[in-house]
Amino acid sequence: MANVLIIDDDLEMGGMLAELVNSVDHHAEHVTTLQAGVQEALEGSYDVIFLDVRMPDGCGLDAIDQLLGVEFPPEIIVITGQGDSSDAELAITKGAWDYIQKPLSPKRIIQPLNRILKYRDGLRSISRHEPKLDREEIVGTSTVIRECLDAVAKSAHSSANVLITGETGTGKELFARAIHNNSERRDRNFIVIDCAALPETLAESALFGHEKGAFTGADRTARGLISLADGGTLFLDEVGEMNLNLQKVFLRVLQEHKYRPVGSKTERSSDFRLIAATNRNPVLMVQNSLFREDLLYRLNSIPLTLPPLRARKEDIEPLTNRFISRVCRSLHCEPKDFSPEFIETLQNYDWPGNVRQLLNTVESAVSEALYEPTLFSKHLPREIRIKAVTSTIRQPETNAAEPVRPEREARLPADTNELSPLPNFKEHRRMVMQQAEKAYLKKLMKATRGDIRKSCIISGLGRTRLYTLLKEHDIDRMGWE
Ligand SMILES: Nc1ncnc2c1ncn2[C@@H]1O[C@H](COP(=O)(O)OP(=O)(O)OP(=O)(O)O)[C@@H](O)[C@H]1O
């Protein structure tokens, strides 16, 4: 028997669907608002959700991420009165099973329902054999973060090298630890090497260790980080900062898993699993001869690109929730609530420092409101409030196709008519930006031969954003041929 949730504000349609589902021995619940639907989906355990697009309290498509944010997510069938191809594409991109248009016949409901159940039975039997992923501290329900968690689960069951890229503060170290802690190596060391902080003169001894008397001051034998990582994981943080000499030395260690402590005549071996991370663009660094191509090749067996926070704004609320509880606990104060405009301000900001900056911002807001029960925008740093406000003001750009409004026309001096073919400055800027974006994306697709993963690394764009831009500019990623 399947548990089915119907989210549809149309009482007659929802009732009819529920009856139909119950008549074939499944169990159906019907709710008439999105909010009730999301709550029900998070609390219950549903196999299938029929989701209407136009709901009184919002667009059903916007709720898909939340509906799928449970441990064993349901399959979603979007139902709509008015089919729209971009909505259909969005629904599928967000992870829906299908997008169907009303009117609905019993066959169009029962058939996908049966297929989904068969598919889920298959999934259950696989997941019985697959160990579950412990998300550790990782918060987020967006599609991109779920894709990253899938990649964590897969890499945890392999020994291949992983290269994590992403802007500063996106969680590269957090994800690296999650891979280690979900792997068979979890009971051994997770050794972090911060390549940016490794002094060139001491690098080899720090990595490989040294024998007593190997150099002045070496008054006893010491193990290096590579030896400490034996059986565990070596995390090379900021690998883009490693100098070319060390890159050469490291390449050999990676190839053979052998090293020689400074001052020793014998080689030792270390069975470490390597995870590297960088917030720089390694492909560009190779192109500029700042990074060895052979080393990049070795490091990048499993690439994992973490999206910037601005590309997954739906994660801001759950992250904020988690951080408020964490900060309140550490300050020994009562957990605080927050107003909707507090979250709105956070969502309107661009977060160049990503999740780390959000955490620092929440810390500062909680300290600011130490004796108050609720957080408001006014508790946020002024810079964030100003940027968030100005970003919303900039939104409504003038549309080129829109005729000049009569009251504006009336105010134009007569001789301005000569200039009428010239768009206003805002419109001109928008068009130039559009052209520049399009030209860049075309070049990007050509340079990477349509490879989305490489394109993300080079451009610094997240997958979802890149796909959206390609669609917006009507660029076929294989169109460079
Ligand atoms: N998805 C997430 N859920 C919860 N906390 C997160 C998440 N991503 C990052 N953080 C938190 O944000 C902070 C920064 O994360 P982390 O140090 O892993 O980022 P990073 O990408 O390695 O940064 P850098 O490039 O500057 O070294 C940490 O406190 C981490 O716990």
Your description of this structure?
The chain is of the alpha/beta class. It folds into 4 domains: 3-129, Response regulator (Rossmann fold, 3-Layer(aba) Sandwich), CATH 3.40.50.2300; 143-215 and 222-305, P-loop containing nucleotide triphosphate hydrolases (Rossmann fold), CATH 3.40.50; 311-394, Helicase, Ruva Protein, domain 3; 422-481. Helix content is 45%, strand content 14%. A 5-stranded parallel sheet has the order 2-1-3-6-7, with helices on both faces. A 5-stranded parallel sheet has the order 9-12-15-8-16, with helices on both faces. Strand 1 (3-7), helix 1 (11-23) and strand 2 (27-31) form a beta-alpha-beta unit. It is globular and about 85 Å long. The protein binds adenosine-5'-triphosphate. Adenosine-5'-triphosphate binds next to helix 7 and helix 15. The site of adenosine-5'-triphosphate (ATP) has 18 residues, from helix 7 and helix 15.
List keywords for this structure.
alpha/beta, 481 residues, Helicase, Ruva Protein, domain 3, binds adenosine-5'-triphosphate, 18 strands, 5-stranded parallel beta sheet, Rossmann fold, 4 domains, single chain, globular
Helix-strand blueprint:
Blueprint: E1 3-7, H1 11-23, E2 27-31, H2 34-43, E3 48-52, E4 54-55, E5 58-59, H3 64-67, E6 75-80, H4 85-93, E7 98-101, H5 106-129, H6 143-156, E8 162-165, H7 172-181, E9 190-194, H8 203-208, E10 209-210, E11 222-223, H9 225-228, E12 233-237, H10 244-256, E13 258-259, E14 268-269, E15 273-278, H11 282-287, H12 293-299, E16 302-305, H13 316-330, E17 337-338, H14 340-347, H15 354-368, E18 374-375, H16 382-394, H17 406-411, H18 425-447, H19 452-459, H20 463-472
Parallel strand pairs: 1-2, 1-3, 3-6, 6-7, 8-15, 8-16, 9-12, 12-15, 17-18
Antiparallel strand pairs: 4-5, 10-11, 13-14
Helix pairs in contact: 6-7, 13-15
The structure holds adenosine-5'-triphosphate.
